[in-house]
Amino acid sequence: MSIVTVTILWLRRDLRLADNPALAAALSEGDPVVPAFCLDRRLLTGRHASAARTRFLLDCLRDLDRSLRDRGSGLVMREGLPERELAQLARELGARSVHASGDVGPFARRRDERVRGAVGDAGAELVLHPGLFAVDDPASILTGAGRPYTVFTPYYRSWLRAPRREVIPAPDRLPALPSRVRRRKGRIPALERIGLACAPLAGKSAVRGGERAARARVEAFLSDGLREYGARRDLLDAGPTSRLSPYLHLGCISPRELEARLGHDAAAEELRRQLCWRDFYAQVLRAFPANVRSEYQRRYRGTIRWSRARRRFDAWCEGRTGYPLVDASMRQLQREGWIHNRCRLVVGSFLTKDLGIDWRWGERWFMQMLIDGDEANNNGNWQWIASVGVDPQSPGRRIYNPALQQARLDPDGAFVRRHVPELAGVPADFLAEPWTMPRAVQDAARCIIGRDYPAPIVDHATARREAIARYAAAR
Ligand code: FAD
Fold first, then answer.
1. Are 76 and 37 in contact (CB under 8 A)?
2. Rounded to whole angstroms, how far apart are CA atoms 304 and 228?
3. CA-to-CA distance for 189 and 192, rounded, in angstroms?
4. Which of 253, 341, 390 maximizes ligand 1 atoms within 8 Å of its Cβ, making it the mutation to test the pocket?
5. 3-class DSSP state of 7
6. Which protein residue has the closest C-alpha to ligand 1 atom 46?
C-alpha cells in the first residue's frame, strides 16, 4: 500500500491565493496540500487586541475559505498554540513539510522557532518563504558597511535596485483535502465567540476583508485614484490614497504584485516610495527587535520624563482636545478603524510633543483601533513622530502645529465638520482655532467654547517650547 504524504500550508498574514510563494512551494511538492489557519488567542486577545481588526481578519478567512473551496480545497481551522496545533496536524496527516511566509517581528520569529521544533518532532520541516513585502527580504538590503539601514532615503535607493521575483498567478485548481481532514475541518468563529465585540465600522473602511475585496480596491485605485495620488494625496476629505493598508497587512494583496502593476510616472513612484516605507520599517524591526518596547535612540531610553496624565490621554483618545484636526482624526479612528497618514502624524505629534505623553500609549491605542494595525509600521512610525526612532531629525522639526496643518490638509473644513459636528456652524475663518471666536460668533455658530466644544487642553506655542526643552534635558 502506498502511503500518501501531505503538505501543510500554514497561512498567517498572507491570506490570498495570487502571488503566494508559500502556496506555490507547497503545491510544487505534488502531494495533497492542507491549507491551515491557527487562531492564536495570544494575538487576538493580548495587549494589542482589536475587535475591529479581528473582524476584518475573520472576513478575510471566510473569503479565503470560499476561494479555496471554489478550487476544490478548503481552509482548515484550528484554535490554540500553533506549535501544538500544527504539530498535531502534521502527526495526524504524516506531513513532511509545513510551508509559511516568513515574518519579521520578534513574537512571530520566536513562535516560528517553536513551531519548527514541534513540527520537527512530528517528522515535518518548517519552510519559510517570501511574500509579505515588495522585495523578498527587506532585511537583506544592507549599507556598504554591511549594516541595516537606519535612514530611509539611502535604503529607498538600494531598495529600488534590489531584485524582484516574478509575480505568481493564483492556481486554477487545488488538490482536494484528504477525507480525514475534511471531516474535521473546523469553523471560522464569530467575533463574539472569540470574546470580542465592536459596533460596525462606518465610512469607507466598512468594506469587507479578503482577497476579492482587496483586488476590487486595487483595480479602482489603479484606474482612478493613482492619477491624483502625487498631487492630492494629502487632502483629507477627498484625498485619493489607496486605503490598501488593511489588505496589505493581512496579505490579501501581495505588495510585490501591487508594485509590479504600478507604472513609472510621478504618482506611481510616489506610491512605490510608500511601499518602501513598509519594507523599511519591516527591516528595522527585524534588525532591532528591542524597538517593540524601547526607543531606538539610546540617549532617550528612560531619560525622557513622559507625562502620565490619564485625563489628557483620554481626551486625546476620545477627540476632546479642543484642536479640531486632532479631534476629527481621533473620532474617525474610533468610528472607522483607519485614518490618513497625515492625521496619524498630527495626532502622534500632539500626543508626544504637545501633551508629552509616552509614545507607547499612543502606539497601543492605535493597535487597538486600527484595522491596518501592524507591529512594524506602527512602532516605526510612532518612534519616528516621537523623535526617538530611526531616520532621526531634531525633535523640533517633528512638531506639527494642528491649526496650520488643518488649513493645509482640510482647506474647506469638510473633514473636520464631518467628524466634529459641534463645529458644523463655525465660520471657516475660525474653524482651525475655534477658541478665538468672539462670543457673538460663538452664539451665532451655536458653539460655545467650553460648553459645546472644549477649550484647548494645552496652548500649542507653550507646549512646543516645553517639548523642545524636555528632549534637550534628556540628552
Ligand atoms: P497609501 O498612501 O495609499 O500607501 C500605500 C501603502 O504604503 C499603505 O497601505 C502602507 O502599506 C504603505 N505605507 C504608506 N505610508 C507608510 C508609512 N509611513 N509607513 C509604512 N508604510 C506606509 N501603517 C500601517 O499599515 N499600519 C499601522 O499600524 C500604521 N501605524 C501608523 C502610525 C503612525 C503614528 C503613523 C504616522 C503612520 C502609521 N502607518 C501605519 C503608516 C500610514 O499612515 C498608513 O500605512 C497609511 O495611512 C495607510 O493608508 P493608505 O493605504 O491609503 O496609504
1. yes
2. 41
3. 8
4. 341
5. strand
6. 341
For the chain, helix, strand, coil in percent to 5 are 55, 5, 40
- Distance from CA of residue 456 to its chain's centroid? 30
d(CA 449, CA 432): 13
Residue 406 in contact with ligand 1 by CB distance below 6 A: no
- The Cα–Cα gap between 425 and 65 comes to 49
pLDDT digit string (tens) for the chain, length 475 residues: 446 789 999 999 999 999 999 999 999 999 999 999 999 998 898 889 999 999 999 999 999 999 999 999 999 999 999 999 999 999 999 999 999 999 999 999 999 999 999 999 999 999 999 999 999 999 999 999 999 999 999 999 999 999 999 999 999 999 999 999 999 999 999 999 998 887 777 776 567 899 999 999 999 999 988 988 988 888 898 778 999 999 999 999 999 999 999 999 999 999 999 999 999 999 999 999 999 999 999 999 999 999 999 999 999 999 999 999 999 999 999 999 999 999 999 999 999 999 999 999 999 999 999 999 999 999 999 999 999 999 989 999 999 999 999 999 999 999 999 999 999 999 999 999 999 999 999 999 999 999 999 999 999 999 999 999 999 999 7
- In short, whether 377's Cβ falls inside 6 Å of ligand 1 is yes
Distance from Cα 246 to the centre of ligand 1, integer Å: 9
CA distance linking residue 98 with residue 86, whole number of Å = 8
**Which DSSP state fits 197?**
-
CB atoms within 10 A of CB 371: 23
Q: Whose CA is nearest to atom 45 of ligand 1?
A: 245
379's grid cell: 512602532
Does the beta carbon of 360 lie inside 6 Å of ligand 1? no
Confidence (pTM)? 0.97
Expressed in angstroms and rounded, the spacing between residue 245 Cα and the centre of ligand 1 is: 6
- Characterize the bridge pairing of strands 76-79 and 7-11: unpaired
